[in-house]
Design a protein that fits this description.
The chain is α+β, with helices and mostly antiparallel strands and 461 residues long. It is 36% helix and 26% strand. Strands 1, 5, 6, 20, 21, 22 and 23 form a 7-stranded mixed beta sheet that branches. A 4-stranded parallel beta sheet has the order 8-7-12-13, with helices on one face.
Protein backbone atom coordinates (compact mmCIF):
# COMPACT_ATOMS: atom_id res chain seq x y z
CA UNK A 1 0.00 0.00 0.00
CA UNK A 2 1.29 3.46 -0.89
CA UNK A 3 1.79 5.71 2.10
CA UNK A 4 1.96 9.49 2.00
CA UNK A 5 4.98 10.84 3.85
CA UNK A 6 5.66 14.26 5.21
CA UNK A 7 8.60 16.11 3.67
CA UNK A 8 11.03 17.19 6.35
CA UNK A 9 13.65 19.95 6.69
CA UNK A 10 17.26 18.81 6.44
CA UNK A 11 18.61 20.25 9.71
CA UNK A 12 16.57 21.02 12.81
CA UNK A 13 18.00 23.02 15.71
CA UNK A 14 17.30 21.46 19.09
CA UNK A 15 16.47 23.40 22.25
CA UNK A 16 18.66 22.78 25.25
CA UNK A 17 17.55 20.96 28.38
CA UNK A 18 17.91 23.01 31.59
CA UNK A 19 20.90 20.99 32.82
CA UNK A 20 22.76 21.78 29.59
CA UNK A 21 22.01 25.49 29.89
CA UNK A 22 23.48 25.50 33.41
CA UNK A 23 26.50 23.48 32.29
CA UNK A 24 27.21 25.91 29.46
CA UNK A 25 27.00 28.79 31.92
CA UNK A 26 29.65 27.10 34.06
CA UNK A 27 32.02 27.01 31.09
CA UNK A 28 31.85 30.80 30.69
CA UNK A 29 34.30 30.92 33.56
CA UNK A 30 37.76 30.70 31.92
CA UNK A 31 39.25 28.63 34.73
CA UNK A 32 36.42 26.08 34.67
CA UNK A 33 36.60 25.88 30.89
CA UNK A 34 40.37 25.35 30.90
CA UNK A 35 40.12 22.73 33.65
CA UNK A 36 37.39 20.88 31.77
CA UNK A 37 39.46 20.80 28.58
CA UNK A 38 42.59 19.73 30.44
CA UNK A 39 40.87 16.96 32.40
CA UNK A 40 39.07 15.50 29.38
CA UNK A 41 42.26 15.55 27.34
CA UNK A 42 44.32 13.95 30.10
CA UNK A 43 41.80 11.19 30.77
CA UNK A 44 41.57 10.27 27.11
CA UNK A 45 45.33 10.26 26.67
CA UNK A 46 45.93 8.31 29.89
CA UNK A 47 43.37 5.68 28.87
CA UNK A 48 44.32 5.87 25.17
CA UNK A 49 40.75 6.74 24.22
CA UNK A 50 41.33 7.45 20.59
CA UNK A 51 40.53 6.17 17.13
CA UNK A 52 43.00 6.41 14.24
CA UNK A 53 45.23 8.72 16.28
CA UNK A 54 42.45 11.16 17.23
CA UNK A 55 40.99 11.66 20.69
CA UNK A 56 37.49 10.19 20.64
CA UNK A 57 35.72 13.10 22.37
CA UNK A 58 36.39 16.60 21.03
CA UNK A 59 33.56 18.43 22.78
CA UNK A 60 33.42 19.68 26.36
CA UNK A 61 30.03 18.44 27.44
CA UNK A 62 28.02 15.23 27.43
CA UNK A 63 24.83 14.63 25.49
CA UNK A 64 21.81 14.86 27.77
CA UNK A 65 18.43 13.27 27.09
CA UNK A 66 15.37 14.03 29.16
CA UNK A 67 13.50 11.17 30.80
CA UNK A 68 10.69 11.59 28.27
CA UNK A 69 13.09 11.47 25.31
CA UNK A 70 14.81 8.39 26.67
CA UNK A 71 11.53 6.58 27.35
CA UNK A 72 10.42 7.22 23.77
CA UNK A 73 13.78 6.09 22.40
CA UNK A 74 13.72 3.01 24.58
CA UNK A 75 10.19 1.99 23.68
CA UNK A 76 10.67 2.52 19.94
CA UNK A 77 14.06 0.84 19.70
CA UNK A 78 13.16 -2.16 21.84
CA UNK A 79 9.92 -2.69 19.92
CA UNK A 80 11.70 -2.41 16.58
CA UNK A 81 14.54 -4.71 17.66
CA UNK A 82 12.02 -7.33 18.78
CA UNK A 83 10.16 -6.95 15.48
CA UNK A 84 13.40 -7.39 13.56
CA UNK A 85 14.18 -10.58 15.50
CA UNK A 86 10.87 -12.05 14.39
CA UNK A 87 11.31 -10.82 10.82
CA UNK A 88 14.80 -12.33 10.79
CA UNK A 89 13.35 -15.75 11.51
CA UNK A 90 10.83 -15.27 8.70
CA UNK A 91 13.58 -14.32 6.23
CA UNK A 92 15.82 -17.17 7.36
CA UNK A 93 13.08 -19.65 6.48
CA UNK A 94 12.32 -18.22 3.03
CA UNK A 95 14.58 -18.75 0.00
CA UNK A 96 12.72 -15.97 -1.80
CA UNK A 97 13.35 -13.42 0.96
CA UNK A 98 16.96 -14.54 1.31
CA UNK A 99 17.35 -13.83 -2.41
CA UNK A 100 15.82 -10.38 -2.00
CA UNK A 101 18.18 -9.28 0.75
CA UNK A 102 21.18 -10.43 -1.29
CA UNK A 103 22.31 -13.59 0.47
CA UNK A 104 25.32 -15.47 -0.88
CA UNK A 105 25.55 -19.26 -0.94
CA UNK A 106 28.34 -19.13 1.63
CA UNK A 107 26.15 -17.07 3.96
CA UNK A 108 23.24 -19.51 3.52
CA UNK A 109 25.42 -22.46 4.47
CA UNK A 110 26.80 -20.90 7.64
CA UNK A 111 23.37 -19.51 8.64
CA UNK A 112 22.00 -23.07 8.55
CA UNK A 113 24.16 -23.89 11.58
CA UNK A 114 22.28 -23.60 14.88
CA UNK A 115 24.31 -21.33 17.21
CA UNK A 116 23.01 -23.27 20.21
CA UNK A 117 20.90 -20.49 21.70
CA UNK A 118 17.73 -18.69 20.55
CA UNK A 119 17.79 -15.40 18.67
CA UNK A 120 19.24 -13.91 15.52
CA UNK A 121 21.29 -11.13 17.13
CA UNK A 122 22.01 -10.66 20.84
CA UNK A 123 24.01 -7.42 20.82
CA UNK A 124 23.09 -4.69 18.34
CA UNK A 125 22.81 -0.96 17.75
CA UNK A 126 20.11 1.08 16.07
CA UNK A 127 21.45 4.27 14.49
CA UNK A 128 18.99 7.14 14.58
CA UNK A 129 18.43 10.87 14.49
CA UNK A 130 16.05 12.24 17.12
CA UNK A 131 13.96 15.27 16.23
CA UNK A 132 11.39 16.67 18.66
CA UNK A 133 11.99 13.68 20.91
CA UNK A 134 11.21 11.02 18.26
CA UNK A 135 13.81 8.76 16.58
CA UNK A 136 14.15 7.99 12.87
CA UNK A 137 16.20 4.82 12.48
CA UNK A 138 18.42 4.80 9.41
CA UNK A 139 20.45 1.61 10.00
CA UNK A 140 20.61 -1.49 12.17
CA UNK A 141 24.10 -2.54 13.22
CA UNK A 142 23.06 -6.05 14.11
CA UNK A 143 26.38 -7.81 13.69
CA UNK A 144 29.16 -6.20 15.70
CA UNK A 145 28.37 -2.81 17.26
CA UNK A 146 31.38 -0.84 18.47
CA UNK A 147 31.94 1.71 21.27
CA UNK A 148 30.54 -0.34 24.15
CA UNK A 149 33.70 0.22 26.21
CA UNK A 150 34.17 3.78 24.98
CA UNK A 151 30.68 4.79 26.12
CA UNK A 152 31.35 3.60 29.66
CA UNK A 153 34.69 5.32 30.14
CA UNK A 154 33.54 8.61 28.62
CA UNK A 155 30.58 8.71 31.01
CA UNK A 156 32.93 8.08 33.95
CA UNK A 157 35.27 10.85 32.73
CA UNK A 158 32.47 13.42 32.50
CA UNK A 159 31.11 12.49 35.92
CA UNK A 160 34.46 13.45 37.46
CA UNK A 161 34.50 16.94 35.93
CA UNK A 162 33.90 19.87 38.33
CA UNK A 163 31.48 21.46 35.85
CA UNK A 164 29.32 18.32 35.86
CA UNK A 165 28.92 18.41 39.61
CA UNK A 166 28.32 22.15 39.66
CA UNK A 167 25.63 22.05 36.97
CA UNK A 168 23.19 20.22 39.22
CA UNK A 169 22.63 17.29 41.53
CA UNK A 170 24.88 14.51 40.15
CA UNK A 171 22.34 11.92 41.30
CA UNK A 172 19.85 13.41 38.83
CA UNK A 173 22.05 12.18 35.96
CA UNK A 174 21.70 8.57 34.89
CA UNK A 175 24.15 6.78 32.67
CA UNK A 176 24.63 3.16 31.64
CA UNK A 177 26.99 0.24 32.06
CA UNK A 178 27.09 -1.15 28.55
CA UNK A 179 29.96 -3.52 29.39
CA UNK A 180 27.93 -5.02 32.22
CA UNK A 181 25.04 -5.58 29.80
CA UNK A 182 27.43 -7.05 27.24
CA UNK A 183 28.92 -9.48 29.75
CA UNK A 184 25.48 -10.53 30.97
CA UNK A 185 24.50 -11.22 27.35
CA UNK A 186 27.62 -13.28 26.69
CA UNK A 187 27.07 -15.36 29.84
CA UNK A 188 23.38 -15.83 29.02
CA UNK A 189 24.26 -17.23 25.60
CA UNK A 190 26.92 -19.46 27.12
CA UNK A 191 24.44 -20.95 29.60
CA UNK A 192 21.63 -21.12 27.03
CA UNK A 193 23.88 -23.18 24.77
CA UNK A 194 24.14 -25.80 27.52
CA UNK A 195 27.58 -24.94 28.87
CA UNK A 196 28.54 -24.78 32.52
CA UNK A 197 31.36 -23.33 34.57
CA UNK A 198 33.42 -20.23 33.84
CA UNK A 199 33.96 -19.57 30.15
CA UNK A 200 37.31 -18.79 28.61
CA UNK A 201 36.54 -15.76 26.46
CA UNK A 202 38.17 -14.48 23.29
CA UNK A 203 37.31 -11.14 21.69
CA UNK A 204 38.00 -11.82 18.03
CA UNK A 205 38.86 -9.30 15.33
CA UNK A 206 41.75 -8.42 13.04
CA UNK A 207 44.85 -7.32 14.91
CA UNK A 208 45.07 -3.82 13.48
CA UNK A 209 41.48 -2.51 13.47
CA UNK A 210 41.13 1.11 14.58
CA UNK A 211 38.63 0.21 17.32
CA UNK A 212 40.97 -2.20 19.12
CA UNK A 213 41.12 0.01 22.23
CA UNK A 214 37.37 -0.48 22.64
CA UNK A 215 37.98 -4.25 22.81
CA UNK A 216 40.70 -3.76 25.42
CA UNK A 217 38.38 -1.76 27.66
CA UNK A 218 35.79 -4.53 27.41
CA UNK A 219 38.39 -7.23 28.11
CA UNK A 220 39.60 -5.32 31.20
CA UNK A 221 36.04 -5.17 32.51
CA UNK A 222 35.42 -8.87 31.85
CA UNK A 223 38.60 -9.85 33.68
CA UNK A 224 37.68 -7.68 36.65
CA UNK A 225 34.35 -9.55 36.76
CA UNK A 226 36.22 -12.86 36.94
CA UNK A 227 35.98 -13.93 33.31
CA UNK A 228 39.34 -14.77 31.65
CA UNK A 229 39.49 -12.79 28.41
CA UNK A 230 41.97 -12.36 25.58
CA UNK A 231 41.90 -10.39 22.35
CA UNK A 232 42.95 -12.43 19.35
CA UNK A 233 43.13 -12.22 15.57
CA UNK A 234 40.98 -14.98 14.00
CA UNK A 235 44.01 -16.11 12.03
CA UNK A 236 45.81 -16.89 15.29
CA UNK A 237 43.19 -19.35 16.52
CA UNK A 238 43.90 -23.07 16.20
CA UNK A 239 41.28 -25.83 16.19
CA UNK A 240 42.64 -29.16 17.30
CA UNK A 241 41.30 -32.18 19.11
CA UNK A 242 37.77 -30.77 19.03
CA UNK A 243 38.75 -27.59 20.89
CA UNK A 244 39.66 -24.02 19.87
CA UNK A 245 42.91 -22.55 21.15
CA UNK A 246 44.56 -19.13 21.29
CA UNK A 247 48.11 -20.26 21.87
CA UNK A 248 47.90 -22.65 24.84
CA UNK A 249 44.63 -21.18 26.10
CA UNK A 250 41.46 -23.10 25.30
CA UNK A 251 38.62 -20.86 24.16
CA UNK A 252 34.99 -21.76 24.89
CA UNK A 253 33.24 -18.41 24.32
CA UNK A 254 33.85 -16.10 21.34
CA UNK A 255 32.78 -12.46 21.38
CA UNK A 256 32.88 -11.97 17.61
CA UNK A 257 33.81 -8.48 16.52
CA UNK A 258 35.14 -9.44 13.10
CA UNK A 259 32.48 -8.95 10.44
CA UNK A 260 31.20 -12.06 8.70
CA UNK A 261 31.87 -10.98 5.12
CA UNK A 262 35.48 -10.17 6.03
CA UNK A 263 35.85 -13.48 7.87
CA UNK A 264 34.43 -15.50 4.99
CA UNK A 265 36.66 -13.63 2.54
CA UNK A 266 39.67 -14.95 4.49
CA UNK A 267 38.16 -18.32 5.39
CA UNK A 268 41.33 -20.19 4.43
CA UNK A 269 43.29 -18.15 7.01
CA UNK A 270 40.62 -18.35 9.75
CA UNK A 271 39.49 -21.92 9.21
CA UNK A 272 40.04 -22.88 12.84
CA UNK A 273 37.42 -20.44 14.11
CA UNK A 274 34.92 -21.39 11.40
CA UNK A 275 35.39 -25.12 11.99
CA UNK A 276 35.03 -24.70 15.76
CA UNK A 277 31.73 -22.88 15.25
CA UNK A 278 30.43 -25.43 12.74
CA UNK A 279 31.24 -28.26 15.16
CA UNK A 280 29.68 -26.50 18.16
CA UNK A 281 33.03 -26.41 19.97
CA UNK A 282 32.51 -22.75 20.96
CA UNK A 283 29.63 -20.47 21.80
CA UNK A 284 29.83 -17.46 19.46
CA UNK A 285 28.16 -14.09 20.10
CA UNK A 286 26.95 -12.73 17.80
CA UNK A 287 26.46 -15.81 15.69
CA UNK A 288 26.95 -15.54 11.91
CA UNK A 289 23.15 -15.35 11.59
CA UNK A 290 23.26 -11.77 12.89
CA UNK A 291 24.57 -10.71 9.47
CA UNK A 292 21.07 -11.36 8.12
CA UNK A 293 19.60 -8.42 10.06
CA UNK A 294 22.71 -6.31 9.49
CA UNK A 295 21.98 -6.12 5.77
CA UNK A 296 20.50 -2.74 4.91
CA UNK A 297 18.15 -4.46 2.47
CA UNK A 298 16.02 -5.61 5.42
CA UNK A 299 14.92 -2.00 5.99
CA UNK A 300 14.00 -1.85 2.29
CA UNK A 301 11.74 -4.90 2.61
CA UNK A 302 10.06 -3.33 5.63
CA UNK A 303 9.69 0.04 3.94
CA UNK A 304 8.38 -1.13 0.56
CA UNK A 305 5.70 -3.38 2.04
CA UNK A 306 7.25 -6.72 1.05
CA UNK A 307 6.94 -7.91 4.65
CA UNK A 308 3.53 -6.36 5.33
CA UNK A 309 1.88 -9.76 5.63
CA UNK A 310 4.07 -10.50 8.63
CA UNK A 311 3.27 -7.24 10.47
CA UNK A 312 0.21 -6.19 12.42
CA UNK A 313 -1.24 -2.68 12.20
CA UNK A 314 0.79 -1.32 15.12
CA UNK A 315 4.01 -2.70 13.66
CA UNK A 316 3.27 -1.19 10.24
CA UNK A 317 2.69 2.14 11.95
CA UNK A 318 6.01 1.82 13.79
CA UNK A 319 7.85 1.16 10.53
CA UNK A 320 6.11 4.05 8.78
CA UNK A 321 6.87 6.56 11.54
CA UNK A 322 10.40 5.51 12.46
CA UNK A 323 12.04 4.07 9.31
CA UNK A 324 12.55 6.39 6.32
CA UNK A 325 11.56 5.44 2.79
CA UNK A 326 14.12 2.81 1.69
CA UNK A 327 14.34 0.79 -1.52
CA UNK A 328 16.64 -1.78 -3.08
CA UNK A 329 18.34 -0.10 -6.02
CA UNK A 330 16.92 -1.81 -9.07
CA UNK A 331 14.94 -0.42 -11.95
CA UNK A 332 11.20 -0.91 -11.89
CA UNK A 333 7.91 0.03 -10.30
CA UNK A 334 7.77 1.39 -6.77
CA UNK A 335 5.96 4.05 -4.77
CA UNK A 336 7.21 7.47 -3.73
CA UNK A 337 5.34 10.16 -1.84
CA UNK A 338 2.34 7.84 -1.81
CA UNK A 339 2.13 7.52 -5.58
CA UNK A 340 3.25 4.87 -8.12
CA UNK A 341 6.59 5.69 -9.74
CA UNK A 342 9.55 4.12 -11.50
CA UNK A 343 12.59 3.97 -9.26
CA UNK A 344 15.04 4.95 -12.01
CA UNK A 345 13.08 8.19 -12.43
CA UNK A 346 12.80 8.85 -8.68
CA UNK A 347 16.54 8.52 -8.12
CA UNK A 348 17.31 11.26 -10.63
CA UNK A 349 14.45 13.61 -9.86
CA UNK A 350 14.93 13.38 -6.10
CA UNK A 351 18.74 13.25 -5.91
CA UNK A 352 19.00 15.95 -3.18
CA UNK A 353 16.71 13.89 -0.93
CA UNK A 354 18.42 10.51 -1.32
CA UNK A 355 21.34 8.51 0.06
CA UNK A 356 22.92 5.54 -1.75
CA UNK A 357 24.31 2.83 0.53
CA UNK A 358 25.92 -0.58 0.02
CA UNK A 359 23.89 -3.39 1.60
CA UNK A 360 26.82 -5.11 3.27
CA UNK A 361 29.52 -2.56 4.06
CA UNK A 362 30.07 -0.51 7.21
CA UNK A 363 31.89 2.51 8.61
CA UNK A 364 30.45 4.88 6.03
CA UNK A 365 32.20 3.03 3.18
CA UNK A 366 30.55 3.47 -0.19
CA UNK A 367 27.85 5.85 1.11
CA UNK A 368 26.94 8.60 -1.37
CA UNK A 369 24.93 11.60 -0.15
CA UNK A 370 22.88 12.85 -3.07
CA UNK A 371 22.89 16.46 -1.89
CA UNK A 372 26.69 16.58 -1.74
CA UNK A 373 27.53 15.38 -5.27
CA UNK A 374 26.90 16.68 -8.77
CA UNK A 375 24.25 15.06 -11.01
CA UNK A 376 27.07 13.56 -13.06
CA UNK A 377 28.71 12.04 -9.98
CA UNK A 378 25.32 10.75 -8.81
CA UNK A 379 24.63 9.09 -12.18
CA UNK A 380 28.06 7.47 -12.14
CA UNK A 381 27.51 6.14 -8.61
CA UNK A 382 24.09 4.75 -9.53
CA UNK A 383 25.49 3.02 -12.61
CA UNK A 384 28.27 1.40 -10.60
CA UNK A 385 25.86 0.35 -7.85
CA UNK A 386 23.20 -1.19 -10.06
CA UNK A 387 23.01 -4.93 -9.48
CA UNK A 388 25.78 -4.77 -6.86
CA UNK A 389 23.65 -4.79 -3.69
CA UNK A 390 22.77 -1.19 -2.82
CA UNK A 391 19.81 0.56 -1.23
CA UNK A 392 18.43 4.05 -1.64
CA UNK A 393 17.13 5.82 1.43
CA UNK A 394 15.38 9.14 1.82
CA UNK A 395 17.23 11.82 3.75
CA UNK A 396 15.80 12.42 7.21
CA UNK A 397 15.86 15.55 9.31
CA UNK A 398 18.98 15.67 11.44
CA UNK A 399 19.20 17.50 14.78
CA UNK A 400 21.80 20.14 15.41
CA UNK A 401 22.93 21.07 18.91
CA UNK A 402 25.35 23.67 20.18
CA UNK A 403 28.43 22.13 21.83
CA UNK A 404 31.35 23.79 23.61
CA UNK A 405 34.64 23.13 21.80
CA UNK A 406 38.15 24.19 22.83
CA UNK A 407 39.67 26.39 20.10
CA UNK A 408 42.84 28.49 20.35
CA UNK A 409 42.90 28.50 24.14
CA UNK A 410 39.24 29.28 24.74
CA UNK A 411 35.75 27.77 24.53
CA UNK A 412 33.67 28.39 21.43
CA UNK A 413 30.10 27.21 20.88
CA UNK A 414 29.70 25.28 17.64
CA UNK A 415 26.59 23.78 16.01
CA UNK A 416 27.11 20.06 15.47
CA UNK A 417 24.93 17.33 14.00
CA UNK A 418 24.05 14.73 16.63
CA UNK A 419 22.90 11.15 16.25
CA UNK A 420 21.39 8.88 18.89
CA UNK A 421 22.30 5.20 18.74
CA UNK A 422 20.80 2.90 21.40
CA UNK A 423 22.92 -0.14 22.24
CA UNK A 424 20.68 -3.17 22.61
CA UNK A 425 21.32 -6.40 24.44
CA UNK A 426 18.75 -9.12 23.74
CA UNK A 427 16.46 -6.34 22.46
CA UNK A 428 16.80 -4.21 25.60
CA UNK A 429 18.56 -0.85 25.73
CA UNK A 430 21.73 -1.04 27.80
CA UNK A 431 23.49 2.10 26.61
CA UNK A 432 23.32 4.99 24.15
CA UNK A 433 26.10 6.00 21.80
CA UNK A 434 26.11 9.67 20.81
CA UNK A 435 28.19 10.81 17.85
CA UNK A 436 28.72 14.44 16.87
CA UNK A 437 30.03 15.90 13.65
CA UNK A 438 30.19 19.09 11.64
CA UNK A 439 29.36 17.04 8.53
CA UNK A 440 26.43 14.91 7.50
CA UNK A 441 28.29 11.58 7.68
CA UNK A 442 28.79 10.61 11.32
CA UNK A 443 31.24 7.78 11.67
CA UNK A 444 34.06 7.70 14.18
CA UNK A 445 36.13 4.95 12.55
CA UNK A 446 35.89 6.70 9.18
CA UNK A 447 37.25 9.92 10.70
CA UNK A 448 34.07 11.93 10.12
CA UNK A 449 32.93 12.45 13.69
CA UNK A 450 33.61 12.13 17.38
CA UNK A 451 31.71 10.80 20.34
CA UNK A 452 30.62 12.02 23.74
CA UNK A 453 29.00 10.53 26.82
CA UNK A 454 25.23 10.18 27.08
CA UNK A 455 23.27 10.93 30.24
CA UNK A 456 19.57 10.96 31.06
CA UNK A 457 18.15 13.65 33.32
CA UNK A 458 14.81 14.96 34.45
CA UNK A 459 13.56 18.02 32.63
CA UNK A 460 11.55 19.15 29.65
CA UNK A 461 12.38 20.78 26.38
Amino acid sequence: MARVRKREPAIVAQREVPWVTTYHAMLRDPVTAATTHKNLTMVQRDLDIQVAGRLLCNVLRPRVLTDAEFRTLQECSETLASLLERIGSVILGSDHLLDLIGTSETERRIWEIDPGYPGITLTSRLDSFMVDGHPRFIEYNAESPASIGFCDVLAAAFRRLPATGAAGDPSSLRDFSAREAMLATLLWAYRASGREGTPSLAIVDWAHVVTRRDFELCADYFRTAGIPAVIVDPRDLDYRGGALYAGDRRITLVYRRVLLHELLAKADEAQGLLDAYRDGAVCMVNSPRSKLLHKKSVFALLSDGTLDAHLDAAERDLVERHIPWTRLWRRGETTYDGAPARLEEVVREEQPRLVLKPVDDYGGKGVILGWEVTPEEWDTALLRAEGQGYVLQERVSVPEESFPVWRDGAVTMEPLIVDTDPLLFRCRVGGVLTRVSAGALLNVSAGTGGSTATFVTEGSR
